[in-house]
Every structure is written in structure tokens, then in C-alpha cells.
Amino acid sequence: MFELGKLFSRKPDHPMNSVDKARDLLAVVDETDPVTALVEIGTWANSLAGADGFGCEDRFLIISEIEIAGSRVAMAVFQEFMRHIHKRDQEQRRIYESLHGYWAALAEAYERCVLDHEAGQAGAAAFDKHLGLAIARAIRACERAERTRQMRYIGSGEELWRAPYRLFAYAEKRQLDELPIAVHEREVRSTIRAELLRMAGMSLAALHEMPPEQVELTGRILERFAISFCWSKEAAPGCNFVLDLAGRLPPRQHAVAMTPAPGLRYFGGGPALPKLEEIEALIARDLLAEEARFGPEFSQAQIVSVIRHLLIYLGADPPKRRFERVSASSPVTIAHGFGSVAPRVSTLEAGSGVVIDEDLNVKQRKQAGVQLAAETPDSEPETWTMRDQSEWGIGVDIPQGLGSWAEPGVLCGIRVDEKSPWWVAIIRRVDAPEFGRVHCGLWIMSKKPIATHLRAIGSETHQAENWETSSGGFRYHYMRALLLPDTVKAHDRPVMLVERQPIWIGELCEIMAGEHPRHIRIMELIEEGADYMRIGFSWMPMVSAK
Fold first, then answer.
1. What is the mean pLDDT of residues 65-78?
2. d(CA 250, CA 203)
3. CA–CA separation, 509 and 512 (whole Å)
4. Angle at Cα 70 formed by Cα 9 and Cα 219, nearest 5°?
5. Shared domain check, 509 and 415
């Protein structure tokens, strides 16, 4: 009998076969190199996911210890990842792989607990009290791994949705999908459904169109608001997206022609969308509290940009491609950054003898007058390969070793051949299926850009010309600008680009170009990019000369 009892109580053949041993082994992990430490911790999680012989509860408690140690190190590695985020080199790859590997291994380890429970493995009954938490943590870790991939613009694999769908289906079966759960200590309660919807929202949000910082910000915003999405097991008003728990396809728009099936679940932005609009309104009035800003590293302009993006892509009518692309294969010259683009396009200065009308058309009246000193571009252009094009967009392949700066939101100048003028474009999407291979999609904003300067005057009631200094001079603020006469208007207002810097809605500026001064009022910040801001403005009435 003694030997028989010993047989049934034998622990798994694994170094971490108890919580105490797990703590001992994790305590000796050298955290002086956080990246290496996170790889080691991720390896422990991966081994727990594949090891047999554990009771459901025992495996879960050990994995929880691994996550406690790993999350502390992962925070330091993530901070280094963000500091290195705009580089595309081997060190960035090493940091990325440690983070992604850790989250992916953690997701698989928690999933193994749930699968063992579903199969009725040893300790299943004792594990009942942890089941909902394990499912929520598995989906959360899966989302974190995928978010990290998207910050490197690495496309999702076919297997991405297999685990989240299967886990959620089991949660529904056990009636746990709406149960309030604190996924980790000191967190606001979530639900398993909210965890899945956060991941679904990220999938629908066209993350390849965002700078990496905004990808992270999107995740944080959805952490707060995905719980307010609407949800239904049947097609319902407001549920304009659908996912299939029995399949592997990512969430997508619901089509009326879809055949109903037991695994289909319908959802939409629901009450989350007006809540996002409330955040945007608070920012417009500078009333958003510090604790509500999703992290001190994000500016209010970044928050507004992401919220507007989410309102578009999670709204009732997400955007569709408007112009057909045709294949192409030719070299194209690309310059990047405001300081490199502005000196290359057509330039107008004060006293240049032209008139600019309210559609930004330029009419020559006399020979050029006062000219400012010519500017030198900040960087040399690169030659990429065009792969397709439409009227207002091009797709390109970036040769290996070039374009290390390429990411969504970067301002570019495009020249299709040496005789052509420079166009102004913005990188709108990036796809990096593997390190060393990068594809970009660029939105051409203007084929007739005009470079000039603005002089900030202030407001109508407090103009800069009244701010005389003690030396008898005046203090004006100047900024470089790109006029875009052929770009799409915003809310029926003309649009321009200015260098990224503090601006104020309602500020008056003088366009430093043309025969007569023209004044504008800044009406809205449409978008903040890496080194530019896209603004909508209105013309002020012209004052007749006395």
C-alpha cells in the first residue's frame, strides 16, 4: 500500500513541480540584463505549457508565480523596447523577441490549464475557482503578444484566433464570459468577453496605419472601453462586426448576406463610441485629468489622433479603399521628414509678387521680391521600388538596409523621375513580414505643395504685435508650413501642414508669401505626425490697404 500511495502522489518530472521550487528558481534569475532574464522566464513558462503530469490547480499556481516574476522584468524590457522603437536593427529584434516570446509562452501556459480542465484532468474540480481567471489571463497574454507584433508591423499568422476563440467558447459554456474578474491585483474588474473584445478591437483598428507609440496607446484605450462594446448572439442593430468562435478568421465587418451559424457572435462599438467622444471633448477644453490620460508618455494630441482613428474604424461605416491599385515596378525617390521635404518643393516667400486665393491657387503678378535664404535639406533621399499605385497612393518595397526610419505617420517627399516635381505624402501603413523585408503604403496628400512660413500673431484680442519688448522690438513666432492646394478639405476647411510644435486652436497667423499679407485662423488639429501637424484653418477677411 505504501508503494501504491507513493506512486499516485509522485510529482511531475519538472524542476518547477511546486510553487516553492518555482519561487526558488525564479529568485536566482539574473535581472541585471532584463532582456536575457525575460527570455529565461519565458522559457520556464513554455516548459510548463508542454509538461505533463501536473494537476490543473498546481500548474495554474506555478504559472502565476512565473507571471509575477516575468511581469516585473517585462516592464523594464518594454520601456527599453519603446526607447528603441524607431530603429530596425539586431538589438531591437532581440528586445522584441524576448517580449513577444514571453507573452506567447504565458498565453500557452494558461491555455494548457484550461484545456486540461476541459479534458477532466487531475485536479479539475479544485481548479474550478481559478478557471475564469485562467481564461482571462490567457486571452490577455495573447493580446499582449499580438500588440507587440503589431508595433513591429509583423502580420498576424493564421493561428492567432484559434486559442482566443476556443477559450471564449469554453467560458460561454461554463457561463463565465460575463463574470467580473480582476485579471491582476489592483486592476479594475474586467470580463472574459471584454478581454476578447479588446483583442477584436485591436484587430479592426488598422494598426498598420499607426506609429508604434499609438499602437500601444490604442491597446490602453481599449483596455478601458472595450467592456462597453455591444454584443449579441444574433445579428442586431449596432453590431456591425462579427467573429466566428468555430473558425479561425479574424473579426470582420458583418455582411447581410452572411449565413447565420451557431459560432457567430456580433458586436460593435456601442456605448464605447460616445464615451470616446467625451474624452475628445474634454481634451478640446483641456479638462482631461492626468490620471485619465492613459500614461504620462502620451500627449493630448496623440490621444485625440487615436480616438479619432478608433471612431472611424470601429464606427458604423469603416473606411474602404477608394481608388483601385494597379501593378507597377519602377524606382521612386523618397525623402523623409519636414526638414527634408520642405526645401525640395515649390517655395513662395514674402513679397514674391503672387496672389494666393482661398483655394490656395497661386497667380503670378510680378517678378519675385524679397527672398529668404535657401534652406538645405536635412537628409539625402533614398531610392525605393514602386510595386503598385493609384491616383493618390503608391505601394513600395524598401530595399534591405534602407528606410530604417519608415513607419506610419512619417512625412515624405516623392519624386517619380528626375523631371517630375516633388509630391508630399505620408506613410500610412507598414508591413514587415520578417526582419529585413519592409513594404509601405503612402498616401499622396498633394501633387502641388507649396512651402512657405507662417508668422503667429496670437488671438484677435491679444495679438503678438502688441507684445513690444524693452528694446523696442517685437517678438513673433515663425513656423515652416506646407500649403496643400489639391488635398481633401477637412470639414470644408482648407488644410496645411506645419512643423510639429505647440499651437493653439483659434490662433491667428500670417502667411509669409505673396504680394499681400493673408491671415488665417487655426481651427483644428487633424493629426499629429512624427514631425508635423496637419491642421484645418479658415481665411480671415482681407483688409483693404489705406
1. 96
2. 7
3. 9
4. 125
5. no
Three-class DSSP category at 204: helix
Residues 19 and 151 in one domain: yes
Burial class (CB in 10 A: 0-12, 13-18, 19+), 214: buried
106 and 92 in one domain?
Answer: yes
pTM for this entry: 0.83
Residue 469 has phi, psi (to 5 degrees) of -85, 170
Q: Locate cell 513577444: which residue? A: 100
pLDDT tens figures, 461-496: 444 444 344 444 445 678 889 989 888 888 889 999
- Containing structural domain, residue 503: 450-539
- Beta-sheet pairing, 508-511 with 241-244: unpaired
Q: Among 204, 231, 254, identify where a domain stops.
A: 204
Half-sphere exposure at residue 366, Cβ-oriented, CA atoms within 13 angstroms: 9
| DSSP codes joined into one string, 70-93 | HHHHHHHHHHHHHHTTT--SHHHH
* Region of 442 on the Ramachandran plot (φ > 0 left; ψ -120 to 50 alpha; else beta): beta
Q: Are residues 119 and 74 in the same domain?
A: yes
- Cα separation, 262 vs 96, in Å, equals 38
- Would you call 52 exposed, middle or buried from its count of C-beta atoms within 10 A (0-12, 13-18, 19+)? exposed
Return the closest-CA partner of residue 429 out of 394, 402, 399: 394
Dihedral angle over CA of 64, 68, 74, 75, nearest 10: 140
Give the position of cell 506645419: 498
For the segment 303-354, what is each residue's pLDDT rounded down to a tens digit?
A: 988 999 999 999 988 876 555 678 888 999 999 999 999 988 877 655 555 5
Q: Is residue 85 part of a domain?
A: yes
Half-sphere exposure of 339 (CA within 13 A, CB side): 7
Contact 429, 440 (CB under 8 A): yes
Q: What is the distance between the alpha carbons of residues 15 and 1, in angstroms, rounded to a whole number?
A: 27
**Domain match, 396 and 506 both:** no
Cell for 265? 457572435
| Pairwise CA distance, residues 503 & 497, whole Å | 12
How many domains is the chain partitioned into structurally?
A: 3
**In terms of Cα–Cα distance, which of 181, 56, 51 is closest to 128?**
56
Q: Are residues 426 and 493 in the same domain?
A: no
Nearest to 242 by CA among 253, 230, 231: 253
Distance from C-alpha of 338 to C-alpha of 164, rounded to nearest angstrom? 42
On whether both 184 and 152 belong to a single domain, the answer is yes
Same domain for 525 and 464, yes or no, is yes
Position 296 in a domain: no
Neighbouring residues of 276: CB distance < 8 A, sequence distance ≥ 6: 221, 225, 307, 310, 311
Strands 518-528 and 532-539: antiparallel
